[in-house]
Design brief:
With 285 residues, the chain is an alpha/beta fold. It has a single domain, classed as Alpha-Beta Barrel (TIM Barrel), CATH 3.20.20. Helix content is 45%, strand content 17%. Strands 1, 2, 3, 10 and 11 form a five-stranded parallel beta sheet that branches. It is globular and about 45 Å long. The protein binds zinc ion. The site of zinc ion has 6 residues, from loops.
Length: 285
Amino acid sequence: MPRHIVCLTFDHDHLSGFIARGMTSPTAISRGEYDVVVIPRLVALMERYGIKGTFFTPGHTIDSTPQAVLPYVEAGHELAHHGWTHRLPVTLSREEEEEEIVRGNESIRRISGRSARGYRSPAWDLSPHSIELLLKHGIRYDSSMMGHDYDCYFARQGDVAELMKPFARGRETPLLEMPISWSLDDFPHFEYMRLPNGSVQQGLMNAGNVLDNFVDDFTYMTRVQPDFGILTYTFHPHVIGRGHRMMMLERLIQRLIEGGAVFMTMEQAMGEWLARNQGARKAAE
Ligand SMILES: [Zn+2]
Protein backbone atom coordinates (compact mmCIF):
# COMPACT_ATOMS: atom_id res chain seq x y z
CA MET A 1 0.00 0.00 0.00
CA PRO A 2 1.74 3.22 -1.11
CA ARG A 3 2.05 5.91 1.53
CA HIS A 4 2.79 9.50 0.55
CA ILE A 5 2.93 11.84 3.51
CA VAL A 6 2.51 15.60 3.21
CA CYS A 7 3.47 18.02 5.99
CA LEU A 8 1.89 21.46 5.79
CA THR A 9 4.14 23.75 7.80
CA PHE A 10 3.78 27.40 8.74
CA ASP A 11 6.61 29.67 9.85
CA HIS A 12 4.77 32.05 12.13
CA ASP A 13 7.26 34.90 12.10
CA HIS A 14 4.69 37.59 12.96
CA LEU A 15 6.76 40.75 13.72
CA SER A 16 10.04 38.96 14.36
CA GLY A 17 11.18 38.63 10.74
CA PHE A 18 10.69 42.34 10.08
CA ILE A 19 12.36 43.43 13.34
CA ALA A 20 15.35 41.12 12.74
CA ARG A 21 15.81 42.77 9.34
CA GLY A 22 15.69 46.26 10.92
CA MET A 23 12.22 46.96 9.47
CA THR A 24 10.36 48.53 12.40
CA SER A 25 8.22 51.26 10.79
CA PRO A 26 4.48 51.14 11.56
CA THR A 27 3.84 49.77 8.07
CA ALA A 28 6.40 46.98 8.39
CA ILE A 29 4.97 46.02 11.79
CA SER A 30 1.47 45.99 10.33
CA ARG A 31 2.55 43.53 7.63
CA GLY A 32 3.55 41.09 10.36
CA GLU A 33 0.47 41.81 12.46
CA TYR A 34 -1.81 40.88 9.57
CA ASP A 35 -1.34 37.24 10.56
CA VAL A 36 -3.62 37.81 13.55
CA VAL A 37 -6.39 38.10 10.94
CA VAL A 38 -5.18 35.06 9.01
CA ILE A 39 -4.54 32.46 11.71
CA PRO A 40 -8.21 31.71 12.57
CA ARG A 41 -8.95 31.31 8.84
CA LEU A 42 -6.03 28.92 8.42
CA VAL A 43 -7.10 26.89 11.44
CA ALA A 44 -10.67 26.73 10.07
CA LEU A 45 -9.45 25.65 6.62
CA MET A 46 -7.38 22.82 8.06
CA GLU A 47 -10.22 21.81 10.34
CA ARG A 48 -12.51 21.52 7.29
CA TYR A 49 -10.19 18.92 5.77
CA GLY A 50 -9.24 17.22 9.05
CA ILE A 51 -5.57 18.20 8.69
CA LYS A 52 -3.08 18.84 11.48
CA GLY A 53 -0.03 20.93 10.55
CA THR A 54 3.14 22.19 12.17
CA PHE A 55 3.76 25.79 13.19
CA PHE A 56 7.38 26.88 13.60
CA THR A 57 7.00 29.88 15.89
CA PRO A 58 9.70 32.19 17.28
CA GLY A 59 9.56 32.85 21.02
CA HIS A 60 9.22 36.53 20.13
CA THR A 61 5.88 35.80 18.46
CA ILE A 62 4.65 33.72 21.41
CA ASP A 63 5.66 36.28 24.02
CA SER A 64 4.50 39.35 22.04
CA THR A 65 1.14 38.13 20.77
CA PRO A 66 0.01 34.89 22.42
CA GLN A 67 -3.52 35.41 21.09
CA ALA A 68 -2.14 34.80 17.58
CA VAL A 69 -0.61 31.48 18.66
CA LEU A 70 -3.30 30.03 20.90
CA PRO A 71 -5.81 29.21 18.11
CA TYR A 72 -3.52 26.58 16.56
CA VAL A 73 -2.11 25.34 19.87
CA GLU A 74 -5.64 24.81 21.19
CA ALA A 75 -6.71 23.13 17.93
CA GLY A 76 -3.98 20.51 18.40
CA HIS A 77 -1.49 21.52 15.72
CA GLU A 78 2.20 20.99 16.45
CA LEU A 79 4.12 23.94 17.89
CA ALA A 80 7.81 23.78 16.96
CA HIS A 81 10.93 25.90 17.53
CA HIS A 82 11.95 28.77 15.23
CA GLY A 83 14.44 30.64 17.46
CA TRP A 84 13.44 33.40 19.88
CA THR A 85 14.31 36.39 17.71
CA HIS A 86 14.35 35.73 13.98
CA ARG A 87 18.14 36.19 13.71
CA LEU A 88 20.05 33.67 11.57
CA PRO A 89 22.12 31.22 13.68
CA VAL A 90 25.01 31.62 11.26
CA THR A 91 25.26 35.29 12.34
CA LEU A 92 25.39 34.47 16.07
CA SER A 93 28.09 33.35 18.50
CA ARG A 94 27.68 29.88 20.03
CA GLU A 95 26.52 31.49 23.30
CA GLU A 96 23.97 33.70 21.55
CA GLU A 97 22.65 30.75 19.57
CA GLU A 98 22.26 28.65 22.72
CA GLU A 99 20.42 31.51 24.43
CA GLU A 100 18.00 31.62 21.46
CA ILE A 101 17.29 27.90 21.76
CA VAL A 102 16.83 27.98 25.56
CA ARG A 103 14.62 31.09 25.50
CA GLY A 104 12.53 29.74 22.61
CA ASN A 105 12.04 26.45 24.47
CA GLU A 106 10.82 28.37 27.54
CA SER A 107 8.27 30.32 25.48
CA ILE A 108 6.97 27.12 23.86
CA ARG A 109 6.64 25.31 27.19
CA ARG A 110 4.85 28.28 28.75
CA ILE A 111 2.15 28.50 26.09
CA SER A 112 1.71 24.82 25.21
CA GLY A 113 2.79 22.91 28.32
CA ARG A 114 5.10 20.69 26.28
CA SER A 115 8.58 20.84 24.80
CA ALA A 116 9.34 21.40 21.13
CA ARG A 117 10.44 18.26 19.27
CA GLY A 118 11.35 20.06 16.07
CA TYR A 119 13.34 23.09 15.00
CA ARG A 120 13.53 25.17 11.85
CA SER A 121 16.21 27.82 11.52
CA PRO A 122 15.17 31.39 10.73
CA ALA A 123 15.89 31.88 7.01
CA TRP A 124 17.14 28.29 6.85
CA ASP A 125 20.83 28.77 7.57
CA LEU A 126 22.29 26.67 10.38
CA SER A 127 25.59 27.50 12.07
CA PRO A 128 28.44 25.02 12.69
CA HIS A 129 27.13 24.74 16.30
CA SER A 130 23.43 24.23 15.55
CA ILE A 131 23.24 20.43 15.40
CA GLU A 132 25.09 19.93 18.68
CA LEU A 133 23.07 22.63 20.47
CA LEU A 134 19.73 21.34 19.20
CA LEU A 135 20.51 17.82 20.42
CA LYS A 136 21.72 19.20 23.76
CA HIS A 137 18.38 20.94 24.27
CA GLY A 138 16.09 18.06 23.43
CA ILE A 139 15.28 18.72 19.77
CA ARG A 140 14.65 15.49 17.81
CA TYR A 141 14.35 16.79 14.24
CA ASP A 142 15.51 19.76 12.20
CA SER A 143 13.83 21.14 9.09
CA SER A 144 16.28 23.66 7.61
CA MET A 145 18.33 21.71 5.05
CA MET A 146 17.88 20.63 1.45
CA GLY A 147 19.79 17.36 0.98
CA HIS A 148 16.74 15.38 -0.20
CA ASP A 149 13.27 16.04 -1.56
CA TYR A 150 11.12 13.11 -0.43
CA ASP A 151 13.09 11.40 2.34
CA CYS A 152 14.61 12.17 5.74
CA TYR A 153 18.21 11.64 6.76
CA PHE A 154 20.42 12.12 9.81
CA ALA A 155 22.14 15.50 10.13
CA ARG A 156 25.96 15.51 10.16
CA GLN A 157 28.23 17.32 12.55
CA GLY A 158 31.85 18.28 11.91
CA ASP A 159 31.87 18.72 8.13
CA VAL A 160 35.02 20.45 6.91
CA ALA A 161 34.54 22.63 3.82
CA GLU A 162 37.79 24.34 2.88
CA LEU A 163 38.34 25.91 -0.50
CA MET A 164 41.53 24.13 -1.55
CA LYS A 165 40.78 20.71 -0.02
CA PRO A 166 38.33 17.93 -0.86
CA PHE A 167 35.21 18.20 1.25
CA ALA A 168 35.34 16.07 4.43
CA ARG A 169 32.03 14.76 5.77
CA GLY A 170 31.44 14.81 9.52
CA ARG A 171 29.73 12.06 11.48
CA GLU A 172 26.01 11.36 11.44
CA THR A 173 24.12 12.41 14.57
CA PRO A 174 20.73 11.23 15.91
CA LEU A 175 19.12 14.53 14.79
CA LEU A 176 16.70 13.67 11.99
CA GLU A 177 16.70 16.09 9.08
CA MET A 178 13.29 16.62 7.45
CA PRO A 179 14.31 18.63 4.39
CA ILE A 180 12.66 21.67 2.81
CA SER A 181 13.15 23.64 -0.40
CA TRP A 182 12.89 27.28 -1.43
CA SER A 183 10.80 26.11 -4.39
CA LEU A 184 8.16 24.76 -1.96
CA ASP A 185 8.06 27.91 0.18
CA ASP A 186 5.44 30.62 -0.37
CA PHE A 187 7.82 33.41 0.72
CA PRO A 188 10.11 33.81 -2.34
CA HIS A 189 7.22 33.18 -4.75
CA PHE A 190 4.81 35.69 -3.30
CA GLU A 191 6.26 38.19 -0.83
CA TYR A 192 7.33 41.56 -2.25
CA MET A 193 10.16 42.94 -0.09
CA ARG A 194 12.22 46.11 -0.35
CA LEU A 195 15.04 45.43 2.09
CA PRO A 196 16.97 48.09 4.03
CA ASN A 197 20.09 47.27 1.95
CA GLY A 198 18.24 48.38 -1.19
CA SER A 199 17.69 44.94 -2.69
CA VAL A 200 14.24 43.90 -3.83
CA GLN A 201 12.56 40.48 -3.61
CA GLN A 202 10.00 40.63 -6.40
CA GLY A 203 7.58 37.87 -5.37
CA LEU A 204 3.94 38.44 -6.46
CA MET A 205 3.84 35.34 -8.66
CA ASN A 206 0.61 34.07 -10.17
CA ALA A 207 -0.84 31.72 -7.55
CA GLY A 208 -2.16 29.28 -10.16
CA ASN A 209 1.32 28.78 -11.58
CA VAL A 210 2.78 28.19 -8.12
CA LEU A 211 -0.03 25.71 -7.43
CA ASP A 212 0.99 23.73 -10.52
CA ASN A 213 4.60 23.61 -9.28
CA PHE A 214 3.54 22.50 -5.82
CA VAL A 215 1.23 19.75 -7.13
CA ASP A 216 3.81 18.49 -9.63
CA ASP A 217 6.35 17.99 -6.84
CA PHE A 218 3.85 15.71 -5.11
CA THR A 219 3.04 13.81 -8.31
CA TYR A 220 6.73 13.32 -9.02
CA MET A 221 7.19 11.84 -5.53
CA THR A 222 4.59 9.18 -6.34
CA ARG A 223 6.61 8.29 -9.47
CA VAL A 224 10.16 8.18 -8.11
CA GLN A 225 9.22 6.83 -4.67
CA PRO A 226 6.13 4.74 -5.41
CA ASP A 227 6.01 3.10 -1.95
CA PHE A 228 6.77 5.83 0.55
CA GLY A 229 7.79 9.48 0.70
CA ILE A 230 7.43 12.64 2.77
CA LEU A 231 6.94 16.06 1.19
CA THR A 232 7.05 19.28 3.20
CA TYR A 233 5.51 22.59 2.12
CA THR A 234 6.31 25.85 3.90
CA PHE A 235 3.94 28.78 4.28
CA HIS A 236 3.97 32.05 6.21
CA PRO A 237 0.58 33.16 7.57
CA HIS A 238 1.07 36.81 6.55
CA VAL A 239 2.02 35.70 3.02
CA ILE A 240 -0.39 32.83 2.27
CA GLY A 241 -3.21 34.71 4.01
CA ARG A 242 -4.11 36.98 1.05
CA GLY A 243 -7.34 35.91 -0.63
CA HIS A 244 -6.06 34.51 -3.92
CA ARG A 245 -3.36 32.55 -2.07
CA MET A 246 -5.80 31.09 0.47
CA MET A 247 -7.86 29.93 -2.53
CA MET A 248 -4.69 28.37 -3.94
CA LEU A 249 -3.91 26.65 -0.63
CA GLU A 250 -7.37 25.10 -0.52
CA ARG A 251 -7.02 23.91 -4.14
CA LEU A 252 -3.61 22.47 -3.24
CA ILE A 253 -5.13 20.51 -0.35
CA GLN A 254 -7.92 19.22 -2.62
CA ARG A 255 -5.51 18.11 -5.34
CA LEU A 256 -3.20 16.42 -2.84
CA ILE A 257 -6.15 14.54 -1.36
CA GLU A 258 -7.14 13.43 -4.88
CA GLY A 259 -3.56 12.22 -5.35
CA GLY A 260 -3.70 10.08 -2.20
CA ALA A 261 -1.74 12.29 0.22
CA VAL A 262 -1.75 11.48 3.93
CA PHE A 263 -1.43 14.68 5.96
CA MET A 264 0.62 14.64 9.15
CA THR A 265 2.47 16.93 11.52
CA MET A 266 6.25 16.84 11.21
CA GLU A 267 6.49 15.07 14.55
CA GLN A 268 4.11 12.34 13.37
CA ALA A 269 5.99 11.98 10.08
CA MET A 270 9.26 11.72 12.01
CA GLY A 271 7.76 8.92 14.10
CA GLU A 272 6.69 7.01 11.02
CA TRP A 273 10.04 7.48 9.28
CA LEU A 274 11.94 6.27 12.36
CA ALA A 275 9.67 3.24 12.70
CA ARG A 276 10.35 2.34 9.06
CA ASN A 277 14.12 2.89 9.42
CA GLN A 278 15.01 1.22 12.70
CA GLY A 279 18.41 0.15 11.44
CA ALA A 280 19.39 3.64 10.36
CA ARG A 281 18.26 5.03 13.70
CA LYS A 282 20.45 2.62 15.68
CA ALA A 283 23.51 3.40 13.55
CA ALA A 284 23.18 7.15 14.24
CA GLU A 285 22.80 6.75 18.00
ZN1 LIG B 1 10.82 32.44 9.71
